[in-house]
Design brief:
This protein is an alpha/beta fold. It is 43% helix and 23% strand. The protein has a six-stranded mixed β-sheet. Strands 1-2 form a two-stranded antiparallel ribbon. Helix 2 packs across helix 3. The protein is elongated and about 90 Å long. The chain starts with 7 loop residues before the first helix and ends with a helix. Belongs to the LysR transcriptional regulatory family. This is LysR family transcriptional regulator. It holds the Pfam family HTH_1. Keywords: DNA-binding, Transcription, Transcription regulation.
């Protein structure tokens, strides 16, 4: 042989066939066709230079060489399965590290963290905050909660949680609140608008959806992060623009108002999980997030 081991797929096909004494049952177990298993067995026999099965009526019977290989496969695959189970248990006991923006963490996630811990006690969630273009490939993260536009990265499994909806918000403490709260959206063209450097397209996108010319917008104070922008808006320093999910609690509490409503953007809020890190906890977290967002 030119390699230390034959194809592992061929060995799996052989082990399943030897266990069931049937190519059809092996194909069913492996979720492949009868022909695919037969080809794997023929290739394995050719590579090893021995016959592994003989016909036994309508079934198969292992040759002496086949019996020896079966015993080796049972032992090897058994040990592999045991190690994989141990690794899965280690993964299940390790903390689940979730990355998300600091503004999403502070304004939406932390107020619901107690309920999440009660609902998913085995998750052992650890949170890591970032801002701007958060890298989904960052080492150590198990998943990333992010607003982003499709198409999604090919190496990510994406749990779509819902559309992003954004709109202007203003504090009742703003000096012009009484006038602006009943004014049309076009009234904002003359206002110095609060904005973030991390998402400069937010106001122009909103203006286009309102049928307004983005070039007529007047940008005022800028902030590095959305969290600071919203704190400035709550303080009455100006009109800000933000995702609805991040200001819903402020609106309910009367700290902010949204007289012009919210509109959908092309972005989606989604939980991204690297394909190589398939963890059943990610699906449970996605289901919990989806339910929590529907009640947000």
């Amino acid at each position: 042989m030119s390699h230390d081991l034959p194809s592992l797929n061929a060995l799996r096909a052989f082990e399943a066939t030897a266990r069931h004494n049937s190519v059809s049952k092996a194909a069913e177990q492996l979720h492949v066709t009868h022909g695919a298993v037969s080809r794997q067995l023929k290739a394995l026999e050719h590579e090893l230079g021995v016959s592994l099965f003989t016909k036994d009526g309508r079934g198969l019977k292992l040759t002496e060489a086949g019996s020896r290989l079966r015993d080796g496969c049972v032992d090897a695959f058994g040990r592999l399965r045991a190690v994989c189970r141990e690794l899965e248990q280690v993964q299940a006991q390790a903390p689940f590290l979730l990355g998300c923006s600091g503004s999403l963490l502070a304004r939406w996630f932390i107020p619901r963290l107690g309920k999440l811990n009660a609902d998913l006690p085995d998750l052992r969630l650890h949170l890591s905050a970032g801002e701007g273009d958060v890298d989904p490939h960052r080492a150590g993260w198990d998943a990333l909660l992010v607003f982003a536009e499709p198409p999604w990265p090919a190496d990510m499994h994406v749990h779509d949680l819902g559309p992003e909806r954004i709109g202007p918000v203003i504090s009742p403490h703003h000096q012009q609140f009484a006038r602006l709260a009943t004014a049309p959206a076009s009234a904002l063209l003359g206002e110095p608008l609060l904005h973030t450097y991390s998402r400069p397209q937010a106001w122009p996108e909103w203006a286009r959806q309102q049928g307004l010319a983005p070039a007529q917008l007047k940008l005022g104070q800028g902030f590095e992060h959305l969290y600071y922008l919203l704190e400035a808006a709550v303080a009455g320093l100006g009109v800000a623009i933000a995702p609805q999910v991040l200001v819903a609690e402020d609106i309910l509490a009367g700290r902010l108002a949204a007289p012009w409503g919210f509109t959908e953007t092309p972005a989606r809020l989604a939980l991204w999980v690297a394909q190589r890190r398939q963890d059943p906890r990610a699906l449970r977290l996605a289901d919990w997030l989806r339910e929590a967002l529907q009640g947000a």
